Amino acid sequence: FLGLSLINGVPIGVKLSNGILKHLLGQEKDLDWTDLEHFDEKMFHTFQGWMDNTSKRGFQMHQTYGLHFVIYDDVSKSEVLLCEHGDQIELTNQNKERYVRLYTKHRLTLNVISQLQSLQKGFWSLFPRSIVHKSLSADHLRQALAGSDDIDIEEWQKHVDYDDCSANDNVIQWFWTYVKSLDKEGLKHLLLFWSGTCSLPLYGFSKSKYSTHKHEQWSIDISKQNQHDPTSLPEASTCDYSLHIPNYSSYDILKSKFDVILQFGYFGYTRS
């Protein structure tokens, strides 16, 4: 699934942790406590505070936290020793680096190792390790899979085709005026309604020569048939990125209909 997402240039819209990403890239030996940032932000900041404390005297960790080399594992619902006799080893300023290393290894690797190995095997069947290990970083892979959160409206508008209408038609002008009035969340909802994903395509709004998506061309058409009710809601065909807008008679009507869509219908009110 992750490999197909990259091949088709369609982000999954999820920011994966470095624990997963570095396994996919064969870089799991490079994991350290900073990789917790995208996995457990609270523990990341806790460890950051520990590591930033470089005073010679340090501080009495055991007296402050009462911790040993033991953690509660959410998967097995039991306490797990981070090392042999871990329940007898108190956490101190002198052994904090070892604790952090063992904690990180367990949270990001050991308790889900079989699942990670399955993901890795499937990913490498599409992208050989010899290629991805050298050419990709965890940050690059995360960006490719998650997609961008920044929607450039002018870039979007530039790459839209108009079927049996033109950019000068009132409805089209009103539509882009409405789009430019949306906040970041509203733009994500519109993107999801129009394309089926709330993340930008891997190569942006333009169709890339590297993409295998056969119909990756954004388009808008205006329903002008007499039998079509001009007060009905817009529709979208997510499989070919096409948006179908009724021939509304005013901006206010268009705005009210899209407001309904982006509040209630962006997850499932589509033709596809």
TrEMBL record:
<dbReference type="GO" id="GO:0000209">
    <property type="term" value="P:protein polyubiquitination"/>
</dbReference>
<protein>
    <recommendedName>
        <fullName>HECT-type E3 ubiquitin transferase</fullName>
        <ecNumber>2.3.2.26</ecNumber>
    </recommendedName>
</protein>
<feature type="active site" description="Glycyl thioester intermediate">
    <location>
        <position position="239"/>
    </location>
</feature>
<dbReference type="InterPro" id="IPR000569">
    <property type="entry name" value="HECT_dom"/>
</dbReference>
<dbReference type="InterPro" id="IPR050409">
    <property type="entry name" value="E3_ubiq-protein_ligase"/>
</dbReference>
<comment type="pathway">
    <text>Protein modification; protein ubiquitination.</text>
</comment>
<dbReference type="GO" id="GO:0061630">
    <property type="term" value="F:ubiquitin protein ligase activity"/>
</dbReference>
<keyword id="KW-0808">Transferase</keyword>
<dbReference type="GO" id="GO:0006511">
    <property type="term" value="P:ubiquitin-dependent protein catabolic process"/>
</dbReference>
<dbReference type="GO" id="GO:0005737">
    <property type="term" value="C:cytoplasm"/>
</dbReference>
<dbReference type="Pfam" id="PF00632">
    <property type="entry name" value="HECT"/>
</dbReference>
<feature type="domain" description="HECT">
    <location>
        <begin position="1"/>
        <end position="272"/>
    </location>
</feature>
<keyword id="KW-0833">Ubl conjugation pathway</keyword>
<dbReference type="InterPro" id="IPR035983">
    <property type="entry name" value="Hect_E3_ubiquitin_ligase"/>
</dbReference>
